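W.,

You were right to be curious about this one. When I first looked at the sequence I had no strong expectations either way, so I just let the prediction run and decided to look at it fresh. Below is the sequence, 369 residues in total, followed by the output.
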Amino acid sequence: MIGTGTAAQLDLRARLRGNDASVVVVQNARYVPRDRHGSVAAPKSLTMRDVEAIRNEVATIAGVSPLVETTQLVKHGRHGVSMSVLGIEPLFFRAERITLSEGRALTETDSNDSAPVTILGKRATTELYSSDPPVGTTVDIAGVPFIVVGIAGVHEQSLMGRDFDRLVFVPFRSMVARLSGQIMLDSIYVQSRSPEETSEVERRVTTVLRRTHELATNHPDDFVLQNRSELIRAERGIGGALRRLTAGIAVVTLPIGVVGVFATMWLAVRQRVREIGLRRAVGATRMTVLRQFVFESAVITGIGGLTGAVLGLCATWLVCELSGWPRVFPLVTAAIATISAIVVGVACGIAPAMKASRLDAATAVKAAV
C-alpha cells in the first residue's frame, strides 16, 4: 500500500510539475446561485471582449489566448470519426507544454489569416490514417477541408481529464470563421510574466472580468480561475495526507496481526502438550522449550512477513503498470515490514512459550493420553 501510495503521489507530482505555474486558466462557472434554496446551470459568459480587456488592462501578462471546443466529424478519405476540435492560439501549446512529433506548430499568422490548417493528436492520427504520412494531407472537419501541418506527440491526460492525444487543433479564428461561428468562449488562457506574479495576475483578471460582466458587488463570479501554482502547492499537502493515511492503515492492521500470532501460538501449545511432556521427560530443560516456541513464532511470522512483502511488491508493480504510474519498489519499507513481523512474532510468542516451558513432564504426558 505504501508503494502504490508513493507511486500515485509521484504521478500527481509529475503531472503538476508538467504544467506551467505561470498560467491562469479562466473557465465559465458551471452553476450560479438562484436563491437561498439552490443554484442553476450557468450560461457561458466568456467572450472575446473579455480577452481584449485582459490583454489591454493587465500589464503583467506575457500573453492571453481564447479557447473554443466543439465536437465535429473529422474525415480522411472515406473514414470519419467524431472528435473534439479545439480552436486555439499558439499560447495554448506553450501553456499545456504540448510538443510535436512531426510538422510545425500553429502560428499567429495562421490565426490572424483564419488559415485552414490543423494539428492532429497522436491517437486522432492513428484513427484517421493507416500508413500514409499525414503531414501535408487534407482532412475534412465538418465538411470543411483543412491541411494537416503537424502531429502532436504522445501526452498524458491533463489535470482536467482532457485527452490531448485524441484532439484536433485548429487556429482560433479558423474555428470561429469556418466551423462553429461560436462567439462564446470555453476558456481563456492567461500567462503571467513569471510564476511569482501569477497571484497578482489572477487578482487583476478577476477585477477586469467582474467589470466587463457588469456584476454587482454582492453577486458571485460567473467564471472560475484555475491557478496552477496553487495546484503545485496543494500537491505537498496531498502528499502529506497520503503518507498519514498509509501510516494510519498500518497502525490499525498491527493489532490484528498481534492478536492472530498470539492466538496461533497459544493454540499450538495446547495442541502439543504430549510433545512438550515427552521432550521434558527425555531431558529438555524449560529454557530449551522456551527457546523452541519463541523460535517457531519468529519463523512463522518471518515467513509470513517475507511472503507479504514479496506479494506487496508484485502488487505494487502490477498497479503501477495498469495505472501508468512510475514504478516504485519500496525495498526499505518491505525490509522494515519483515523485520517488524519477526519482532512482533517473538513478542507474541513469549507468553505461550513460557506456558509451554512450565508444563510438568508427567502431568503433560498424562493429560495428553
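Here's what jumped out at me. The longest helix spans residues 228-271. And, maybe more interesting for your project: The mean pLDDT is 80.

Coffee later to discuss?

I.
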